[in-house]
Design brief:
The structure holds 2 protein chains of 2 kinds. Chain A is mostly helical. Chain A has 12 helices and 2 strands; from the N terminus they run H-H-H-H-H-E-H-H-H-H-E-H-H-H. Chain A has one domain: ABC transporter involved in vitamin B12 uptake, BtuC (Orthogonal Bundle). In chain A, helix 1 runs antiparallel to helix 6 (164-183). Chain A is globular, with a radius of gyration of 20 Å. The chains are: A mainly alpha, B mainly alpha.
């Protein structure tokens, strides 16, 4: 009983706080949009961290799974929004349909994760990277050629149902799931695979099964993030899910520390807000839109350079495998990663 | 029937270009067991250097034999230098680190190159970086029909002949270098086991540097051939072409020189047939579909040999 209560604790704390936050930000739509972007990026980074960080596989096609989630959720939502659920009041019916469409999107993404993962996770690191990248591209080409998904123009008119609450509720879920995985025997197996695949196999860890499961969980949450994204953008276009988006998430995971959930969160927040802040800063100082626009352009080469420099200087990323409360200012001597304490 | 033959010719011509890029991947993988993600982007830089060089020359000069040779040489040498720097400063410090670090670095270098070329930078009237818009590659080899059979049933263009010719010469040269020279022997030794090779007195660093330079120079040559055919240069061309070439190298069995060529020709043909008999919008998905298929059926590639991992 105690364990169940402890497991529900994060939600018990988060739900009132999120309601409060939603209430407080009611009149600041810009802040809400910015937070939604942050929330989606956190979900993506934390879920990718399960594959790239904990399991040590290198997926660079996360945007592909996000695209699956966004398109499926968008299509389901668009189709059902015409009808609604008759016996429920309109507001409730909308929310139910929203949840259903999100779950549909996430489940299809998980299914794709399974389909891609099963054959390719038996391959070594570099091959997996290429296959995931290829998968992302195939999804994009497929969507661009399908009438149902609006071809190159994208899917428009998805009802705007994402609220600050629902977006960050997803964030809380993914963080809790990631932390619980890391603390479980499942997570130990993933870490073992990351540290030495051959040794893990010799110890009786079914490496393929664990890798595929990690992949499925990560794609599920990527799909969820995609659904949330679709329901606040209201337009889902193929250009949102390119190689660049995948790389953005990879940079967040690598910079935060491969295997550190809090690291991924912090990196996602900083890397989402920093370009935004720089852009408005330059816009305010010079009053010239062209410089602000260049910030957006320069962002990409800087991400590339950042990856190289992090690998050369601090290959384990900001926090390595540790969580923020294990790092210096909070505790004198950080414990080794293998004795990570239980979920928060 | 003639349509079929025409597709085969077109497929082989684009396949040879993939082959030249794929050779760079395969060589670097051979000596370093690293997939050089930045290879395609080095190629893109080569194409831009070729573009800039040809813009500097007079129109007549750039179309003369001397001009074309000069354009190729300048681009290939610049890329060789770039390859050297990338290896020296990004990959060498990580050689003894886990594989994943080198992979992430390679992705980072690739990302850096392809996106910094999209930032238009002009300093004192001199364009340093070109910007994202595609540019028309000058016609350094004027497209003419080399051979016409029947009532234009089958048309072979001169650039197809030239690229197949150049590719054949370069591949034969490479095969000679790897299997008949002292340096090639050193390369094969490093590929087999670089630590032991070092103990035997082989300058491992030099061999790896040179392999990178060679691969990058080949890529630059291939890139210009591709640009002549495609008539466009753009910063992201390296990513697409590079990935296709990588797919070709994997299909043939990565690390295997003739395998890369066979894989590239096969990929060129498959792509041409899908575009010819299917739809051209699917072109970019073909390579990856083919790759996933090959990895499912025969992950070591056509000519590759499955090796057990030793601990």
């Amino acid at each position: 009983m105690n364990g169940v209560l402890k497991g529900l604790l994060p939600f018990a704390v988060a739900i009132p706080l999120l309601w409060l936050a939603q209430f407080l930000t009611k009149d600041t739509p810009f802040l809400v949009i910015l937070s939604l972007t942050v929330g989606v990026n956190i979900t993506l980074a934390v879920s990718l961290n399960i594959v790239n960080g904990m399991t040590g596989q290198f997926s660079i096609g996360h945007a592909g799974f996000m695209a699956v989630g966004a398109y499926i959720a968008g299509v389901v939502s668009k189709m059902t929004s015409v009808y609604g659920i008759s016996f429920l009041p309109e507001g409730v019916s909308d929310q139910v349909l929203y949840v259903v469409s999100l779950l549909a999107g996430a489940s299809s993404a998980a299914l794709f994760g399974f389909l891609v993962g099963l054959p390719s996770l038996r391959l070594k690191g570099d091959y997996l990277a290429i296959v995931t990248l290829g998968f992302g591209e195939i999804i994009r080409v497929f969507v661009q050629n399908t009438e149902l998904f609006g071809k190159a123009l994208g899917l428009s008119g998805v009802p705007q149902r994402t609220s600050l609450f629902s977006c960050f509720f997803v964030v809380v879920v993914v963080v809790v799931v990631a932390r619980r995985i890391a603390a479980s025997s499942h997570g130990r197996a993933l870490l073992a695979i990351r540290e030495d695949e051959v040794a893990a196999e010799a110890m009786g860890v079914n490496t393929t099964a664990y890798k595929v499961r990690a992949f499925v969980v990560a794609s599920f949450f990527a799909g969820l993030a995609g659904g949330v994204f679709a329901h606040y953008q209201s337009i889902v276009a193929p250009s949102s899910f390119t190689y660049v988006k995948s790389m953005e998430i990879v940079v967040m995971v690598v910079a935060g520390g491969l295997g550190s959930t809090t690291g991924a969160i912090i990196a996602a927040v900083v890397l989402t807000l920093l370009p935004e802040a720089l852009r408005s800063l330059f816009l305010n100082i010079t009053g010239d839109g062209s410089i602000a626009q260049r910030v957006e352009q320069i962002r990409m080469p800087i991400y590339g350079l950042l990856l190289v420099i992090i690998m050369l200087v601090r290959p384990q990323g900001l926090f390595g495998t540790q969580e923020i409360w294990q790092v210096w200012p909070f505790r004198k001597r950080a414990k080794p990663a293998s004795t990570t304490p239980g979920a928060p | 029937m003639s349509e079929f033959v025409q597709h085969i010719i077109n497929g082989l011509a684009s396949g040879t270009i993939y082959a030249l890029v794929a050779l760079g991947y395969t060589m670097v993988y051979g000596v370093l067991k690293l997939i050089n993600f930045a290879h395609g982007d080095v190629m893109m830089v080569g194409v831009y250097v070729g573009y800039a060089t040809s813009r500097q020359l007079e129109r007549d000069t750039s179309q003369s034999f001397f001009g074309v040779t000069l354009i190729f040489l300048v681009a290939m040498m610049t890329c060789a230098a770039l390859g050297f720097f990338i290896e020296r400063f990004a990959y060498r410090p990580l050689r003894e680190k886990p594989k994943l670090t080198a992979l992430i670095t390679a992705i980072g270098v690739s990302f850096f190159l392809s996106y910094s070329f999209q930032v238009e930078t002009v300093v004192g009237g001199l364009t340093l970086l070109p910007g994202a818009a595609p540019k028309a590659f000058p016609e350094i080899i004027k497209p003419t029909e080399w051979l016409v059979i029947g009532d234009r049933d089958i048309v072979i263009w001169n650039w197809q002949v030239i690229s197949i010719g150049i590719a054949a010469v370069l591949m034969t040269g490479l095969q000679y270098l790897v299997f008949k020279t002292r340096f090639g022997m050193a390369m094969r030794a490093v590929s087999f086991d670089h630590r032991t090779a070092g103990l035997m007195g082989i300058p491992v660093d030099k061999v790896i540097s040179f392999t990178f330079m060679l691969g990058s120079a080949l890529a630059a040559g291939a890139g210009i051939l591709y640009a002549i055919k495609d008539t466009l240069v753009q910063p992201l061309m390296g990513v697409t072409l590079g990935l296709k070439a990588f797919v070709a190298a994997v299909i043939g069995g990565i690390g295997h020189v003739p395998g890369a060529v066979v894989g590239a020709l096969a990929l060129g043909l498959v792509e041409e047939f899908v575009v010819g008999y299917g739809s051209s919008t699917w072109r970019d998905a073909v390579a990856f579909g083919f790759l996933i298929l090959v990895l499912l059926v025969r992950p070591e590639g056509i000519f590759g040999r499955m090796t057990a991992e030793k601990v």
